[in-house]
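Data deposition worksheet. Section B asks for the primary sequence of the deposited chain exactly as it was used as input, without tags or linkers unless they were present during the calculation. Section C holds the resulting structure in token form. Section D is free text for depositor observations; keep each observation to a single sentence. Incomplete worksheets are returned to the depositor.
Section A, Depositor: J.P.
Section B:
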Amino acid sequence: MLTRRPRVLAIDDDVVWLEQIPIILDGIAEVECYQTIDQALLAIENQFFDIVFLDINFDGDSRTGLDVFRKIAAHDHESDVIVISGETKPERLIQIMNAGITQFLTKPASPEQIRQAVREALTKKESRLRALNQARIRNELSGRPVTLIGSSVALQKLHLTIQDAIVSGAKDILILGDTGTGKEVVARSIAQTADHSKRMIPINCGAISDGIAESELFGHVKGAFTGADRDRASAFEAVGGGFVFFDEIGDMPLNQQAKLLRVLQERKVQRVGSLEEKPVHFRSISATNVNLESAIANKKFREDLFYRISKFTIKVPALRERIEDVPELAHHFLSSHSSESKVTITREAMNLLQSYNWPGNVRQLEAVIDIMSHRCSNGVIREKEVCHAIPEVADMFTAKVTRSFLGRQGALFVNTERRRFQKAIIEAQGNRDKAAEILSISRATFFRRAKELGLVNSRSRQLEN
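Section C:
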């Protein structure tokens, strides 16, 4: 199921040993190597790795490889950790196993042992991905539309959470996520999968005004106010047992929040102008990009309503958290926006798209694809179209930064690394040996990374300020 080349992170303070890993795995995986825990933690913070080769003991550092492992586990990256260490103390080996590390190679491991460990880890990963994908496959076989595009681990987990929400029969569901991540797509996916014969009525909470909110949400009886010439059913009645979707519920006025809370608690609605409460059968889905806990602290959102709607919470990942889905999403949008002539995209252009952080998420990607598909020449989207559509990428796409490095690492990480290296260079007053010492890396590693970052051009050239 892995259509891309696997990504491996190797962390070891033994430089000689560390330099062997890329050679051993040449043609099998993309390998990043770091000598210090700080470097490794920075890489883990900003990138995804399928496999992490990890030493346990680091000279001059009170922390151990177990601290790195805990960081990986905390990020829930689904990375497989393989310890390669000369550790022989029984108590430490027990500690390693108890931490949850299941693969251990004794240093020095042979090249074939390393390659075999990688093969086994990838086989297990594919088995996990197939298991995670079963829910999606069931939906496809049932003939119901699957609107969530992508096959990343993050999206597979989202599919499983959606399935859990449906199977649990949760009456009230809260969807959290940044703007443009596809919260409404998730809501419609839930409604379609739960019962495609039932309706989903969306309510734009941000557009609700106090003057019309009661009538729109709760309905009214004839004569309740001027212009009420007939009875109007509430959204909760009209949905007929389906879903009422409260889009951007964090923007709902406080007085309407109180009335909504009563309906959610009692499952009864009182139309405007009526003294009678009618029982209603519905399920609610609320979505917001607002931090509701902060809104509660600022007295902008009711705490009791938050607890009511958040009994089952779904977090939609940002696009930067599933960057491997960009190609599939891009091709999907290309086919959607290219009605007559087929538009294609070059591999280099796709690498640039995957290097971007996408603050506007999937919605922004769709808009960018639409722009590029109309502006490209000869039906081919190239790097220049990406740079034109995304100025931030154009700033990164210079002759100084190698294209392969940018596509491999990502713009956010490249920016961070450049600032870190530039700071060290300034502190070292241009002395490359001292700069490498400040960064706690070897001179060779420093020069290689500085060259990739566009800070030096060759071994004979001076460092650029």
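Section D:
The two ends are 44 Å apart (CA to CA).
The first strand starts at residue 7 and ends at 11.
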